[in-house]
Specification:
Chain lengths: 478, 679, 325
């Protein structure tokens, strides 16, 4: 195996590091800590956070890439290390985990959990009398329900059985998790486990444990059921080329996360720097920066993105030698999209930070620092930036969901991610005409809808919780 | 005669056992605990108390206008025979503005910014008097004229932002009167106003009340205002009324230890230079009210019983009752205690031989006004327009003036936080203006500043130790880690804070403690001069006394010089050696405290002094009413800036700005009433 | 006040020039015309002759900024920058790949775009403001809570699903209106009804929440307490006092998009096959018609700047502090 480091992977893991750093900073600073504790008390917020964590887990698994060694060269590798040949397919850990879903492709459409294809096909059947007869029927799927053999009637029982087992395992895992949480709370608040359990469900602890537990229960139940059914069946059916839809939605998660998070990462340094500098130094610097962001924001976002993506595509197409794999090419386009989205969306935050800095710099503690002759840089670092943190955090979580939604629209318009990259946008784009088919093919759209809606709704609810906790006007006196 | 007695006896408002709480998360924090009082037509009941004692919540609860988190837990509010707490909302709306009207503290935000004055007045007339059309207009004009607004016709069509602060409050009063209420609730009606405007508004309220025989419930923290306005006084402490008395009895023989302490903590004439009596500690927070007497923890006379059992009402004289276990009820005349405690910090302040630390000459700070398409400078706001002063080690110079006179700008320009337009600021002979930041740095540790708002002056994201250590670091006084910590601990001790405070954050401290931290921050770099910009105006009286005492002690111990910027003459009297009075960017009179405060010569100084409401009944000087308000510093009047408001103005005043007339070695005044120096 | 408006107008000029330069840089500096030609012609036919012919047909064969070979003012005018960018100020956008004049095309397509965008905008504004007022009136009640939950759920659904779902339900299942298309005259309403309905519906979530926040912020102000202390009813307070003040922040976000209505909506128009500017843009993007995209970017910016000026103008109507200063 040879690791492949895509640029977006680097940025994603950089984000993980940044999140850990933010957590460490928050733990040290009592105001930030108090704000996060307020988030922790918000039930909707914590349930959403649990769901989002599951999505992030999928996304992170999908962000460790490598190319597998080709079978032919798997011989005495030590003898001729230079001649190793790697597959051109770049795989991620998630791909490996989902190997059955990834590889067991059917011929074309099939309904969720089906054992037969969606459309009739002419097949030649050798009749009892030995003659070959043409017959039109729904053909059996190659993989979906293959383990049932001839016993197709046992399909429902098999599904029910698997669901039952999944529920059983889910109950066990959930019980263990719940016990661990009660134990933790019992130790933290120095009370009996029974009392801790009661506090969790009566909502009397400083953490919305009940919401987390409920969210976990739902996640475990759905997740394990899907896991139990995914191997023998296609849980969400297959698409036009027979690819498993569940695999596609899981792959879409990473794209959505990259768009939602990396974009913010790209725009944050720029908007913080320019906003603070404009607000703090005022004068011509302020005029210049204001001119810059008014000009950029005056170009309608979609059009600027369209123009930039078109141009980017020209660059990519005219330099095919830059990329060794298709994945790298798609990745660059994804990053370019993030970058362009970042460029078009930094102006709002910049304006906000500039206004807040203007207010802050008139505050008396800044003047006290100036009376000590503290340098401007130090005043910005010690007095201005920490007091802007809440705005940045709020902007970060608020932007996420709108960016995920924007990706879908842009991909539909044709200026989103690379068409070969699986994303919610490309899924919807491929599936939008399927509703018009007779009989209707609804599962691709439905799966994309359910996953995307869950992701965005959770992000929105968490964003609300974070905003309520961090906004000094809403959170009361901090 | 008999009829008058009957009117006086008519009880307008009777409150019984009213309890209010604020919801916070899942718990209810009690704010007002079972208070009761009554207001009779034609009288003014003043509810006196420090911030957070529940007096404003009480006022709002009477009208059922508490904010969303507020809850009325129980009690009875009967107004004109109806229990307001049980009235349906629709009927309650008829009471609001009709039976009972309210004036709020902040006139700037209490009027709707996008509706005209006329519209906001008409609203009440239409609602409660069912007037319409020309009748509304006529009545509106009448009301505006009644509250002393000149040119009422024009003002009707204007928006609040076109009015000055005093005028806005007059409009508020007109709106309150429009529904012909029988009871007026005034919640700190003059706290946001300057003293001269305050005097006008208080006079107006008194006149209107007398004319209309209204009852009035006045909410205030200011003993001076209460002394002028009240018929009866109720003192609130931590959500309870602890003493209630007729005005005469209240000011001559207060009975509750808290009331006595409040009087003693007020800086004033009788105890100049002495230490002020302080109330130790602070008001207990809403969440941890003690059982027993709520004042017990801070009361010097408290004993076991006070901590265990809440005292009941005790009648001590006619109409005078008090909630205190001290059963002998011998109220000590405040001031007696104080004079015993007084440890005179008498510095020979006027050592003329002492070299001046700071010399400011002809300082001007002008801000350009830009207008038009090209943003050309069309004029200047002359915030500071030729101020000169000198200050020697160990001296306190008080710079006194109303808001907008430029006194804070002077302080900032001296510290080089603002660039002066012209003039010089010299520190021990060294010119500060025009120096580079690097060159200024060694001088920065000589001068420090304490700001007005203890909540805005400390960075909430830094620990107290970091805040105090900032100056040490910035000025290169960074020593070894241990020494640094020791220095911070030492300065914390100096301002009376425990050294564990260094690891805590500003939001964990009360206003007074925060101001101590701010003082510690300034002291850490061992300055010679501290510029104090209204350091106590945001604090309660009892806390103000603590800070003033601290400043006095520090001056005696360290020989600090203070430039004390304030609008409060009582504080000036207590702390300052020299006084300079500013009006519209210029100093109009200067001299020693005795000269300026005992024999003021400038008409403005006189008016200003007479407008300050004293917390005594006996010492009230004749009030000199100043017409109008302070003009804009962008367009100061020709000649003497003060002449449009001066009763003694002559032709000369309209033509020339007066030169300084020297009255004594230390006393000078800019006024044409005095012989001008030969040109 | 007039000086204020004149200043805003003058300020718009450098912004337009900036937009023009950015577009130019994006289209001609990031990639050379040769790259574009290669892309447009496809891999097979790329010969140097084909490229130069392609460039010559479209006027991309000139120098970027300065034409050394030209004489007189043509040194500057006979360049790509002048002919492709600077001339846009005069309303000359050149020709599309299909040879049609872009300016004329734009004028003819504005009508259908407006026919959808304007009703969507007006109905949407009315619906969301009323809904937000309703939630504000019943604030901190169950109605408010579930209203907000509904808003959050609605804003978590991608606009694509509103359109797909709407077309499926209304046109395919219920067969109430045609699934797509556009017709002039009286029949137009049949084609407009569904796009407008979907446009309004998809905007309800986020707008309502935004207006509700503004209303709630206004309602906590001191002057509202004064109004209540006058004995006014809650409805009067809401409409006469709160709404009037809340208009100021609402206008900031609303007026600026009015000129952009001309540009139409990319999604709606392409899904419903409406021959407006939105579908024009999408077709141009898919066909990689650079001239059209460039023209649309420029017009979009002009419209945005007009929107900014209109916003300033609207302030003078609702905010006396600006009107009289």
């Amino acid at each position: 195996m040879a690791p492949v480091i895509l640029w977006s992977d680097v940025l994603i893991w950089l984000l993980v590091v940044a999140a850990i750093a933010l957590g460490w900073l928050s733990a040290r600073n009592p105001l930030l800590r108090a704000a996060w504790q307020r988030v922790g008390r918000n039930r909707a917020g914590m349930a959403s956070a649990t769901v989002l964590l599951a999505f992030v887990g999928v996304g992170l698994l999908d962000s460790i890439h490598f190319r597998s060694l080709l079978e032919s060269s798997a011989g005495p590798a030590a003898a001729r290390p230079a001649a190793q040949a790697y597959s051109v397919d770049v795989l991620s850990l998630l791909d490996v985990a989902l190997t059955p879903l990834r590889t067991r492709n059917e011929k074309t459409y099939s309904e969720p959990l089906a054992t037969r294809a969606h459309a009739k096909e002419s097949t030649e059947v050798r009749a009892a009398d030995g003659r070959i007869r043409q017959s039109r029927d729904y053909p059996r799927l190659k993989y979906g329900g293959a383990h049932l053999g001839a016993d197709e009637a046992g399909h429902d029982a098999d599904v029910g059985d698997r669901l039952l087992r999944a529920s059983g395992i889910a109950a066990l895992v959930w019980g263990a998790l719940a016990a661990a949480m009660a134990g933790g709370l019992a130790r933290a608040e120095a009370c009996s486990r029974r009392e801790a359990w009661r506090r969790i469900w009566r909502n009397e602890s400083d953490f919305a444990g009940n919401a987390v537990l409920v969210a976990m229960a739902v996640l475990l139940l759905l997740g394990l059921s899907m896991a139990m059914l995914a191997t023998p069946y296609h849980v969400f059916g297959t698409d036009k080329v027979g690819q498993d839809v569940l695999y596609q939605v899981l792959k879409s998660v990473r794209t959505a996360l990259v768009i939602g998070l990396v974009t913010t990462l790209v725009m944050l340094p720029l908007s913080i720097f320019l906003g603070v500098v404009a607000g703090y130094f005022r004068g011509w610097i302020d005029d210049l920066i204001q001119y810059l962001y008014t000009t950029l924001s005056s170009i309608p976002g979609v059009l600027l993105i369209a123009a930039a993506v078109l141009m980017m595509q020209v660059v990519i197409d005219t330099h095919p030698h830059w990329f060794t794999t298709a994945a790298e090419r798609a990745d660059l386009r994804l990053l370019a999209l993030c970058f362009i989205l970042g460029v078009t969306s930094w102006t709002g935050l910049c304006r906000l930070l500039r206004g807040e800095t203007l207010k802050l710099r008139e505050l008396e503690y800044i003047q006290a620092a100036q009376a000590f002759g503290v340098s401007d840089l130090r005043i910005i670092a010690r007095h201005i930036l920490p007091n802007l943190m809440h705005i940045v955090i709020i902007a970060l979580v608020m932007d996420f969901s709108s960016l995920v939604l924007a990706e879908a629209v842009l991909s539909y318009v044709g200026i989103g991610v690379d068409p070969t990259m699986i994303s919610f946008g490309t899924m919807i784009n491929n599936a939008r005409l399927e509703l018009a088919r007779e009989p209707m093919v609804w599962w691709s759209l439905a799966a994309a809808f359910v996953f995307m809606f869950t992701l965005v709704l959770a992000a929105n609810l968490l964003a609300d919780a974070v905003r309520d906790a961090f906004d000094p006007r809403l959170a009361g006196s901090a | 005669m008999s009829q008058e007695v009957r009117v006086r006896e008519e009880v307008l408002l009777r409150v019984r056992d009213l309890s209010i709480a604020f919801a916070s998360g899942r718990s209810l924090l009690p704010a007002v605990a079972g208070i009761g009082f009554q207001v009779v037509a034609g009288e003014t009941l003043a509810l006196l108390g420090e911030s957070g004692c529940g007096k404003s919540a009480t006022a709002l609860a009477l009208l059922r206008l508490l904010p969303a988190a507020g809850r009325i837990l129980g009690g009875e509010v009967s107004f004109a025979g109806r229990d307001l707490l049980r009235l349906p909302e629709a009927e309650m709306r008829g009471v609001r503005g009709g039976g009972m009207a309210m004036i709020f503290q902040e006139p700037a935000t209490s009027l709707n910014p996008v509706l005209t004055v006329g519209r906001q007045l008409a609203e009440v007339l239409e609602r409660h008097l069912a007037l319409s059309g020309p009748l509304t207009r006529a009545r509106s004009l009448e009301l505006l004229t009644a509250v002393g607004i000149a040119d009422a016709e024009r003002r009707l069509g204007e928006y609040p932002f076109q009015l000055s602060g005093g005028m806005k409050q007059r409009v508020m009063i007109a709106i309150a009167l429009a529904g012909k209420p029988r009871l007026l609730i005034a919640d700190e009606p003059t706290t946001a106003l300057d003293v001269t405007i305050q005097a006008q508004v208080l006079e107006l309220l008194r006149r209107l009340q007398a004319e209309r025989a209204m009852g009035m419930l006045l909410i205030s923290h200011d003993l001076g205002v209460v002394a002028q306005m009240a018929t009866r006084v109720g003192v609130m402490y931590a959500g309870e009324i602890v003493e209630e008395a007729p005005r005469q009895a209240f000011f001559s023989s207060p009975r509750h230890p808290y009331t006595q302490k409040l009087f003693a903590a007020l800086p004033d004439l009788a105890r100049r230079g002495g230490r002020l009596e302080t109330i130790p500690g602070q008001v207990p927070p809403l969440s941890e009210m003690p059982g027993g007497c709520r004042f017990a923890a801070r009361c010097a006379q408290a004993w076991e019983l006070c901590r265990q059992e809440a005292p009941q009402w005790r009648q001590v004289a006619v109409g005078h009752r008090v909630r205190c276990h001290l059963n002998d009820g011998q109220g000590q005349r405040p001031g007696v205690v104080a004079s015993v405690v007084a440890a005179a910090v008498t510095v020979d302040t006027l050592r003329s031989s002492a070299p001046a630390l700071l010399v400011v000459q002809d300082l001007r700070v002008h801000f350009p006004i830009r207008r038009g398409v090209l943003q050309r400078t069309v004029g200047y706001v002359r915030a500071v327009d030729g101020v000169s002063l000198e200050l020697a080690r160990g001296q306190t110079l008080a710079l006194v003036g109303e808001s907008g006179c430029g006194k804070t700008t002077v302080g900032k320009a001296i510290l080089q936080l603002l660039a002066a337009s012209s003039g010089s600021v010299q520190w021990q002979g060294e010119e500060l203006g025009g120096q580079s930041r690097r060159a200024l740095r060694p001088l920065r540790r000589r001068m420090q500043m304490i700001f007005q708002d203890p909540f805005a002056s400390l960075n909430p994201r830094l620990a107290v130790g970091e805040i105090i250590g900032e100056g040490l670091r910035a000025l290169g006084m960074r020593a070894q880690r241990q020494e640094h910590a020791a220095a911070i601990a030492a300065v914390l001790q100096q301002v009376g804070l425990d050294q564990v405070a260094a690891a805590r954050y500003p939001h964990e401290f009360s206003g007074g403690q925060r101001q101590r931290i701010a003082i510690a921050r300034a002291l850490a770099v061992q300055p010679d001069l501290v510029i104090c910009d209204e350091p106590t105006s945001a604090l309660d009286v009892s806390v103000q006394a603590q800070i003033l005492n601290l400043l006095a002690t520090l001056q005696a111990d360290l020989g600090l010089a203070y430039l004390f910027i304030t609008h409060n003459f009582a504080v000036v009297d207590h702390l300052a050696h020299l006084v300079a009075v500013m009006y519209l960017g210029r100093i109009v009179e200067r001299g020693t405290v005795d000269e300026v405060l005992r024999s003021p010569q400038h008409p403005y100084t006189r008016a200003l002094l007479s407008a300050v409401p004293g917390p005594r009944l006996d010492l009230q000087p004749e009030f000199i009413r100043l017409p109008g308000e302070i003009p804009s510093p962008a367009t100061p009047p020709m000649g003497c800036h003060f002449h449009p408001r001066c009763r003694q103005a002559s032709v000369a005043c309209r033509e020339r700005y007066p030169e300084a007339s020297t009255l004594s070695r230390t006393h000078s005044v800019h006024c044409h009433l005095y012989p001008q120096p030969p040109a | 006040m007039l000086a204020y408006l004149v200043r805003r107008l003058l300020y718009a000029l450098p912004i337009l020039i900036g937009v023009n330069l950015i577009t130019f840089a994006l289209f001609f500096v990031v990639n050379t015309p040769d790259d574009m030609a290669r892309m447009q012609l496809g891999v097979k036919r790329v010969t140097p002759e084909a490229i130069s012919r392609w460039k010559a047909e479209r006027g991309y064969d000139k120098p970027l900024f300065i034409n050394d070979e030209a004489i007189g003012s043509a040194v500057f005018t006979d360049t790509i920058f002048f002919s492709k960018s600077a001339r846009m100020f005069a309303g000359d956008f050149g020709r599309a790949e299909d040879g049609r004049d872009i300016a004329r095309e734009i004028v003819s397509r504005m009508g259908p775009s407006l026919a959808i965008a304007l009703p969507t905008f007006i109905v949407g504004l009315l619906v969301t403001v009323s809904f937000a007022l309703l939630l504000t009136f019943f604030r901190a009640s169950y109605l408010d809570f579930w209203g907000v939950v509904l808003c959050v759920a609605m804003m978590s659904i991608s606009g694509l699903f509103y359109i797909i779902g709407g077309q499926y339900l209304v046109s395919k299942i219920w067969r109430l209106v045609p699934i797509s298309g556009y017709g002039g005259g009286l029949d137009a309403w049949k084609f407009l009804l569904l796009p407008v309905l979907i446009g309004v519906l998809s905007g309800i979530g986020s707008s309502t929440r935004w207006y509700r926040t503004i209303f709630l912020e206004e309602i906590s102000r001191d002057y509202v307490r004064t109004a209540r202390a006058k004995g006014l009813s809650e409805l009067t307070v809401l409409f006469r006092h709160v709404l009037r003040n809340a208009l100021i922040p609402i206008l900031t976000g609303v007026v600026v998009v009015i000129p952009l209505l001309f540009m139409g909506s990319l999604l709606t128009e392409s899904f419903f096959g409406i021959p407006g500017l939105g579908s024009y843009t999408i077709d141009a993007i898919n066909a990689q018609d650079f001239a059209v995209v460039r023209a649309m970017v420029f017009i979009g910016s002009v419209m945005y700047i007009v929107g900014l000026i209109l916003t300033d103008l609207s302030y003078t109507f609702v905010d006396p502090r600006i009107r009289f200063n």
